[in-house]
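Quick one: structure for this chain?
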Amino acid sequence: MNANILSFHCPTKIYMGINSHQKLNDIIKEWKIEKIFVVADGAIVKTEIFESMEKILKDNKVAFDLFSEIEPDPSAATVEKAFDLYKKSQAPVVLAMGGGSTMDTGKGVGILAKNGGRIADYEGMEKYSIPPLPLIAIPTTAGTGSEVSASCTITDTDRGLKMSIRHPTLNPARIAILDPIALKTLPASVAAHAAVDAFVHAFESYISLNANPITDALNLHAMELMSQNIRQFVSDRTDLEAGLNMACASNLAGITFGLTGLGNVHCMARFVGAFCHVSHGLSNAVCFPAAAEFNLIANPKKYARVAVAMGENIAGLTEMEAAEKAFNAIKLMCLDLGIPDKLRNIGATEDMLAEMAELSFKAGYNKWNPRYTTYEDFLELFKKAY
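Got it. Here's what it folds into:
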């Protein structure tokens, strides 16, 4: 009997399309919402889509409180500050509008509202059992997939680390709305970092030791959609077709990586972000080429299929030659999007490398990464990326 029984589950209802945020009208009526707690990125509060959402709430006579003091990679203190405001509201539903930081803050509030304690109490896998408040998520970046992912990432500033709060069934939003209008005001650099993060989600989930035929299908299509739209989207966020395709691709990858786990890119990026105080997306983007090259020999067959998804012609090539095409396409994508090519260019110093390598080895990603990675391997990867 095969002991490695895999599974697939997506508890989120997803609406997608231009102006799909108008579905809020129907959701309010269906759920009989009279009060809602809104968590929003401060940068979008005066945007077209936020004003439209606010009008929908007012037209439906829904009372709401707003929390918008959210920094990138939100801290436990931010989650608890949001929860303090929530306690005055006691709304039965949370609406999150923003990127991964905003959605993770909304998830944190929902967890605390139903389970109590401090957010750090829930670090790890399935550390709570009471379902959190229902979450409606409208992502304003095409990157994290947090609206459907099993992960909630909160920074522990005392330890200088990012806590991963994972629950495949209870962490994803109840409803996700993918509206490219929400992406229109995204700065180009943020769009690029988030987009590469989304690609890494699909790529690492695809080559994960826990991948299965269903996650493979979703991840390959996600990488194909991103390869066809990522440059157009970063160049012009008002290209609504490219924006919708990127939002859907990010969402597909968000569904899968919570089930399969991720690999060395995300493992390294956790500590790069914490040590260098840069965004999750940028951390992943800078680590991506070095880690992708390291893992190539572990599964050249899948790398060759990535090359096809990225639009590369592999006719007549050996499997290894085709795999190298994927790696070269990844490097070119990062170059075209203006991703810094070295860790030193985002604030890393040489004296950080050994500690980041040690933390990466201890983080336990070898259960997902396709090539076993020792401390010495991680140190070489960080040196290569540096």
